[in-house]
Amino acid sequence: MIFLLQVLVNIGNHFDLKASVFQAPRRGIYSFSFHVVKVYNRQTIQVNLMHNEYPIISAFAGDQDVTREAASNGVLLHLEREDRLYLKLERGNLMGGWKYSTFSGFLVFPL
Amino acid sequence: MIFLLQVLVNIGNHFDLKASVFQAPRRGIYSFSFHVVKVYNRQTIQVNLMHNEYPIISAFAGDQDVTREAASNGVLLHLEREDRLYLKLERGNLMGGWKYSTFSGFLVFPL
Amino acid sequence: MIFLLQVLVNIGNHFDLKASVFQAPRRGIYSFSFHVVKVYNRQTIQVNLMHNEYPIISAFAGDQDVTREAASNGVLLHLEREDRLYLKLERGNLMGGWKYSTFSGFLVFPL
């Protein structure tokens, strides 16, 4: 049996990192991926995928010359029931918005 | 039970966006991801993932100084049977080719 | 039933491409994705996903002006039992390190 953890798509500009927390419904291996797009912003950003307050993986976007650039990464994780996963903007800001950003997770393999 | 929607890998330079349409074999949650690589092309491209003629997510590649750059994104989607998914080049062109581009989708969770 | 092929996360700087080989435990369709991050390195890198010594997909990172940039791609593959999958640095080097790189694979659909 496969459980879907959550589906989250950000079409508009209203993505709230802090409010977007996955909570694992059961023990298992989960797949997570994210693409955080910075818009009209020359700063370097660092986005961390957090697991219960600890950073697991990071992604970067630091190009000076493009209007939109994604900080992307993905990972498989062994989670316990009620473990929490969320994105944290570790460096930089998203003043220009982050339209088109996505954050997805699903259960691959229950344990 | 898990259904694989389709497997599509573009090793060569013969990827045809319009001809590459996923059609959902059944209702469920599907995972889609794409990496569209532009080659020797200074234009900014925007690639949309289309769901029955509606754009769901977008990705961008706009760097002026690199010979190959990918516009990447991914998403989980709730599809009905026979829903159609495909990539659309919303902006720019792929005159230099898009060798190494990939587009993948599979059923995560039947409903 | 779903089998997880392997979980591999590189938090530190000790990722060894050559030693990180997935071997398929059974016949089926597998999903693979990788994000290889080059750090403080102006060279263009090309990373290949290898399937039993043959390149399947490639990814590139070639920006001159950023301190960290990822070469990312992903694919669904039909594997036979004991097929081997690994990453190969086809071009460039990773002298500055590749902290934050990830390589993930799991069985989507047994055959």
Number of strands of chain A: 7
Enumerate the strands of the largest sheet of chain A in spatial order, edge to edge or round the barrel: 1-6-3-4
Arithmetic mean of pLDDT of chain A: 77
Q: What shape does the CA trace of chain A take?
A: elongated
Q: What is the tally of helical segments of chain A?
A: 0
GO biological process, one term (chains A, B, C): maintenance of synapse structure
Subcellular location (chains A, B, C): Secreted
Pfam families (chains A, B, C): C1q
InterPro entries (chains A, B, C): C1q_dom, Cerebellin_Synaptic_Org, Tumour_necrosis_fac-like_dom
Keywords:
elongated; homotrimer; 3-stranded antiparallel sheet
What this model shows, in words?
3 copies of one chain form a homotrimer. Chain A is mostly beta strands and 111 residues long. The first copy, chain A, is built from no helices and 7 strands. Chain A has strands at 22-23, 28-39, 45-51, 54-61, 68-79, 84-91, 102-110. The first copy, chain A, has a 4-stranded antiparallel beta sheet, with no helix packed on it. In chain A, β3 and β4 (54-61) form a beta hairpin. The relative contact order of chain A is 0.40. The A-B interface holds A 2-4, 7-9, 11, 33, 35, 37, 63, 65-70, 72, 74, 100, 102, 104, 106 and B 2, 29, 31, 33, 44, 56-60, 62-65, 72-78, 108-109.
